[in-house]
Amino acid sequence: MKKVIVGFLLCVLAIPLHVSAISKIRCTCYVEPGICASGHYTRDGIVAGRRSDLGRVAAIYRCDTDGQLGEFIGYYEFLDTGAGIDTDGDGKGDSIKKGLSIDVFKNSLDEAKDWISEYGDYVYIQYIDAEG
User: Fold this and answer.
1) What is the pLDDT of residues 57-85, one digit of tens each?
2) Which of 7, 11, 16, 128 has its CA 20 to 30 A from that of 117?
3) Domains of the chain: residue spans and CATH
4) Rounded mean pLDDT of the chain?
5) Strands (E), the chain
6) Whole-angstrom Cα distance, residue 30 to residue 103?
7) pTM for the whole structure
């Protein structure tokens, strides 16, 4: 009986990725279904950020009650933009545009309330230059 050995060569493309430092950021939720700034339909796993963030991935972590970095929540894709919370008193949202907050898409108001109940108003985020 002959033995046949079949070998496979796995080639890995080394593509350098930029990963930012982890920072604390305000996090809100939105529930309006539709088409994102990227052209994709809203769905779980999408986050709205600055226009310059489109196409990036966010690694999101819990902000513990003591303000420290907590457990990993998940990876989210920056596929949408938004305005956010009014930070300068002109009555127009601008916190997302300024990079001071992000907006996580949820399928319902109940899911959005559950998110805020579970994770609060702040999270830690790490920006990754990669597609989700």
Assistant:
1) 999 999 999 999 999 999 999 999 999 99
2) 128
3) 23-128 (2.40.40.10)
4) 87
5) 23-30, 46-49, 57-63, 69-81, 101-105, 122-128
6) 6
7) 0.82
User: In one letter, which amino acid is 63?
Assistant: C
| Rounded distance between C-alpha atoms, residue 28 and residue 24, angstroms | 13
Amino acid identity of residue 132, one-letter, is G
From 4, 3, 101, select the one nearest 49 (Cα to Cα).
101
Alpha carbons 38 and 27: distance in angstroms, whole number: 20
Cα distances from 73 to residues 58, 63, 94, in angstroms, run 10, 10, 25
How sure is the predictor about 8, in pLDDT bands with cuts at 50, 70 and 90?
very low
Q: Which residue from 127, 106, 84 is spatially nearest to 29, judged by alpha carbons?
A: 106
Mean pLDDT score, 109-132? 92
Q: How far is CA 46 from the centre of its chain?
A: 6
Half-sphere exposure for 98 (CA within 13 Å, toward CB): 13
**Chain centroid to CA 114: how far?**
17
Enumerate residues 6+ apart whose C-beta is below 8 A from 43.
105, 107
Taking alpha carbons only, the member of 48, 78, 67 closest to residue 123 is 67
